[in-house]
Each structure stands twice: as structure tokens, then as C-alpha cells.
């Protein structure tokens, strides 16, 4: 794979002996009250929903959840209301919870 292609999640995961959080708390910067959660394809991202500050989200799958897009890492999560489809949140906006 070239430098501009998606990075496989498995190459970014810690070793098998290290615990990985499956629930994360959303954190926003001091100017916002939440973050956007996006649908992504190979060339663009589009907002799907908004997740409020301090909401909890669950990762979709450890093996396929992490994605490198536009120079940043994104994690595939389920928003708080389970009837919504999964989407991607920038990892800078997530705090491991459990």
C-alpha cells in the first residue's frame, strides 16, 4: 500500500496482551458542545449525525474500526441511539472509557 492509501486497522492495533477500550466518551473543544460523526468513502466524508459532549459510544469492531483519512485517524463507532447507523469520529475527540 502507498502512503496515501487507507491504513489497515490491524497494523495500528497494540499487541494482543494489551487491553483495548470498547466504549469511549466524546470530548469536544471548548467552543463546541459535541462532535460530528461522519460516513466516509474513499474520497470524501459527509456528516451523518451529531454526538453531544460526554456521550458514550461503542466501537464497531476492533479489527476494522480504525481508519486513516485526510491525514487524521478516525474510529468507527455506534452513536448513543442504536437505531442510527455506525459512523466515524476523529480519535482526537474520544477518551477511552471502558
Defining key terms:
mainly beta, two-stranded antiparallel sheet, 98 residues, globular, six-stranded antiparallel beta sheet, 8 strands
Summarize, please:
The protein has one helix at residues 9-12, and strands at residues 23-26, 34-40, 45-52, 56-59, 66-69, 72-78, 87-90, 94-96. With 98 residues, it is mainly beta. The strands form two sheets. Strands 1, 4, 5, 6, 7 and 8 form a six-stranded antiparallel β-sheet that branches. It has a two-stranded antiparallel ribbon with strand order 2-3.
Summarize the structure in words:
The protein is mostly beta strands. It contains one helix and eight strands. The strands form two sheets. Strands 1, 4, 5, 6, 7 and 8 form a six-stranded antiparallel sheet that branches. Strands 2-3 form a two-stranded antiparallel sheet. It starts with 8 loop residues before the first helix and ends with a strand.
Specify Rg, calculated over alpha carbons: 13 Å
Regions with little confidence, pLDDT below 50 for 5+ residues:
none
Query: Could you give the count of β-strands?
Result: 8
Structural class: mainly beta
* Oligomeric status: single chain
Distance between the termini: 33 Å
Q: What is the beta-strand fraction?
A: 35-45%
Mean pLDDT: 82
Estimate the helix proportion, in percent. Answer: under 10%
Shape: globular
Largest β sheet strand count, sense and barrel closure: 6 strands, antiparallel
Topology order in helix (H) and strand (E) letters: HEEEEEEEE
Annotation field: number of helices? 1
Amino acid at each position: 500500500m502507498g502512503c496515501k492509501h487507507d491504513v489497515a486497522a490491524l497494523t495500528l492495533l497494540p499487541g494482543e496482551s494489551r487491553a483495548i477500550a470498547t466504549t469511549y466518551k466524546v470530548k469536544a473543544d471548548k467552543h463546541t458542545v459535541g462532535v460530528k460523526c461522519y460516513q466516509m468513502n474513499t474520497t470524501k466524508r459527509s456528516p451523518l449525525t451529531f454526538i453531544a459532549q460526554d456521550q458514550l459510544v461503542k466501537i464497531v469492531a476492533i479489527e476494522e474500526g480504525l481508519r486513516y483519512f485526510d491525514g487524521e485517524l478516525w474510529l468507527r463507532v455506534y452513536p448513543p441511539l442504536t437505531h442510527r447507523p455506525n459512523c466515524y469520529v476523529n480519535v482526537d475527540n474520544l477518551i477511552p472509557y471502558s
